[in-house]
Write a structure and sequence with these properties.
296 residues; alpha/beta; Rossmann fold; N-(1-d-carboxylethyl)-l-norvaline Dehydrogenase, domain 2
Amino acid sequence: MTDKLTVSVLGTGIMGAAMARNLARAGHTVRAWNRSRAKAEPLAADGVHIADTPAEAVRGADVVLTMLYDGPAALDVMRQAADALRPGAAWVQSTTAGIEAIGELAAFAREHDLVFFDAPVLGTRQPAEAGQLLVLAAGPSGHRHAVAPVLDAVGARTVWTGEDGAEGTATRLKLVANSWVIATTNAAGEVLALARALGVDPQSFFDAIAGGGLDMPYLRAKAGLVLNDQLSPAQFAVATAAKDARLIVEAGRQHGVRLDVAAASAERLERAAAQGHADEDMAAAYFASFDERPSA
């Protein structure tokens, strides 16, 4: 197989748009579809063909890449594309879908003779735009060469977690990783909120932990977005983080684990979304600590 492929990207939000651009820059023929065409249109300047329907996007594609809101959305869009899917094509499923949904998506792949790869990614807007995502992938080793050019174009590294994408081993690892990301982000927001309430300069906290075991670049980065009013454009939106937090809580529940921090994080994110911060960076969960937006 040639290294230059025809790739269909279904879903052009923060991550999907960046992935489509990097695929086009790598020399692949890229067709993109988004439920709201206006969000996909800017990709035309990068040489991406904008399709009117999922079926138009996937017709004749070597690889279909889905980066949609959740598992049900991915399944719905693939059903719309079903008649145009090429038997034997590879499906790189990068939506954070949850464990139960991965089984449903894999079943659809079997029904339509697609080679299924469970392939969520770790990273936010900036690494996505730079093609520096970490790809977590599971799928048959005998077919990995077919998707390697796609994974190489969107990510800096691919970590293979298993042979069978239907087992959802990559999705399981993604949920574990996201549980840490979401908990840390919410903790950072509460630190800033408490500092404000107690009249403590946040910088004095950062100075106190500087260089020690409690210090971490991620904490400083997320806190900086709040302190510098840089929550838009989002690196990882509040609404999406809330959805992922609920998937994490449900995965724990199904396997006999009570995840109190994840449940509280989901509630904080949902409260921030209801306050009008849904499309801002997930660090905006900070505002969930207040009944009204605090003055500067």
